[in-house]
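Entry 12.
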Amino acid sequence: MAEILVENIIVSFSISSNLDLPKLAEILPDARYNPDDAPAIILQFSHPHSMAAVSSSGTVVLTGPKNMDEVHDVVKMVLDRLNVVGVECIGSPELSVQNVTISTELRQEIKLRSLAKFLQIPKYSPRVFPGLVYKEEDPNTVILLFDSGKMVCNGKSVEDATVALEKMLEKLVSFGIKMEENICQK
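Predicted 3D structure (tokens):
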């Protein structure tokens, strides 16, 4: 299997309570606020490419970082921007990883209809969704397999998602897919 790539880490944390979003949107120069679309102020960052949604309850949800160093960088940028406009954040917020998305390429095509039968997945419908959705119980993850050989896995950590992909690799070998490499690389 080719290299495993971290595509996205979603993290949440709390900074305060009862933020006045309309007022903050007026004084934060690069904030987007459209309460009809989402009840949050949206802050976007180009390095690392990421986004933060700040809700009126003081909850912040980050999406886009590809590693925990980038997560910490974005958290600092959010806190700095809010501090400049008078929102004080005391101490370091407690970060909670909500979701991690990783992907890899098998470098070969997969016959999804046959694989769905092999894995006993009754609800495979390529007209509804072009991939095969496989739910792994231990660890609790979801793997998307595409006929191109691309696999995407969502879990609570890079480790959980990697373990799930390794388990899927074993199932694919049992299914008859020949692998160039049998080791997942990070």
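Annotation: Residues 119 and 171 are 8 Å apart (CA to CA). The mean pLDDT is 91.
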